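TA notes, week 10

Several of you asked for a full example with nothing omitted. So below is the full record: C-alpha cells for the whole chain, then the designed sequence directly under it. When grading your own attempts, check the secondary structure regions first.
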C-alpha cells in the first residue's frame, strides 16, 4: 500500500514527465524558453480527504494548475478540472504548501506553470 504522500508525489512526477515537452518559462523580456529541468517536488503534504466524501465512498481527481516561482514556492493555484467540488479546497490548500526544486533554463531557476492531478481514492 502506497502512502498518500508517496501517491501524491508519484502523481505529480508522472504529470510532470508527461508535460515535459510542453513546459515553457517566460523570461523578463516576455520570451518563452523551453524548460531544461522541470520542477521537482521536495515537500508534498497530501490533501485532507473530506470526511463526508470518505464516509460515502466517493473517490475523485482535481487538476490543479500551479505557478512555481524561481525559489520553488507555489505562488498561484487554481482548479482547472474537478470530479467533485468538495475535493477542490483541500487540493488547493495542499498544493499551496508544496515546495519544489525550481525549474531551470540555461542553469538558472525560472518560474513555470504546470498542472498537477490530486487524486482522492477511498482505498488509500
Amino acid at each position: 500500500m502506497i502512502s498518500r504522500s508517496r501517491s501524491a508525489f508519484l502523481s505529480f512526477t508522472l504529470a510532470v514527465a508527461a508535460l515535459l515537452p510542453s513546459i515553457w518559462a517566460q523570461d523578463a523580456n516576455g520570451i518563452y524558453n523551453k524548460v531544461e529541468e522541470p520542477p521537482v517536488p521536495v515537500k508534498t503534504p497530501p490533501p485532507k480527504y473530506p470526511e463526508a466524501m470518505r464516509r460515502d465512498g466517493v473517490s475523485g481527481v482535481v487538476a490543479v494548475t500551479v505557478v512555481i516561482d524561481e525559489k520553488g514556492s507555489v505562488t498561484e493555484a487554481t482548479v482547472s478540472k474537478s470530479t467533485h467540488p468538495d475535493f477542490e479546497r483541500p487540493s488547493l490548500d495542499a498544493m499551496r504548501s508544496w515546495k519544489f526544486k525550481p525549474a531551470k533554463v540555461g542553469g538558472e531557476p525560472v518560474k513555470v506553470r504546470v498542472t498537477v492531478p490530486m487524486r482522492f481514492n477511498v482505498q488509500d
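Residues 15 and 116 are 6 Å apart (CA to CA). Use that as a sanity check on your answer.
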